[in-house]
Amino acid sequence: MRATIGLLLVVTLTGVCGLALAKDHDDSGSAADSVAATFPVLSGISTGKTRVIDMTYTLNGKLPSWPGDDKTFETQVVATYAKDGYFARSFWTLEHYSTHLDAPLHFAPGKASVAQIPVTHFFGPAEVIDVRDEAAKDPDYRLTAARVEKWEAAHRRIPAGAIVLLRTGWASRWPDQKRYRNQDAHGVMHFPGFGADAAKLLVARGAVGLGIDTLSIDYGASKNFEVHHVDLPAGLYNLENLANLDQLPATGAFLIAAPIKMEGGSGGPCRVFAILPEAK
Ligand SMILES: [Zn+2]
Fold this sequence. Notes:
By secondary structure, the protein is an alpha/beta fold.
């Protein structure tokens, strides 16, 4: 009698487990399908339908830096396979070096540090203003409000929540520091940037961030960083030294900026991605 009960118990448990396994399998399948249906562009990343552009330079100590920033990035091995069974390093870097984010705190006392920027601001449509022609003629070129309006007439009004990127063509000089800084005999740098009136218009449009393929969103010869004084106090952030801006259309890409979350940071290294639904 006991044996029979035991047998029945085993059979029953096996039956329950079998059902549970089958149920789990079905659930995970439909859950994945439902996630894919809800996020078609994001799900397309793993299937290859959506393109991801990495707009980040690889960090090392040999990249163009701001004049005077001689020590930029260092690493030290703290564990080795031979000694510790695993490999690990420590690193030191400037907050503003290579592809990085300027937090409002960089120029505006009491404003958000890099750790305090609302995470929702790190996601937004990328609006790309291409000023390569202007910058090729004039390395001191500054984007004007009128030029933004001209771009809007050709494309669309800059939407609230946008991340506005200025494509100057300067990335073609990376990582040649001399050409990227483009300093004259007096040490003054000459590269293009946003202008203050353009920045004011973009703040008014509700942009959450500005980005550029040079060392600074202000033009190189700037003495007082006018644009930084306009957009950072308004709560926007800046992305500087962006890579692969040439691969983005004027509109249609979606940007994800993921800076290091460092307490009290005036900014910091930032991984920047653009995602593009592929037509092909
Ligand atoms: Zn910076």
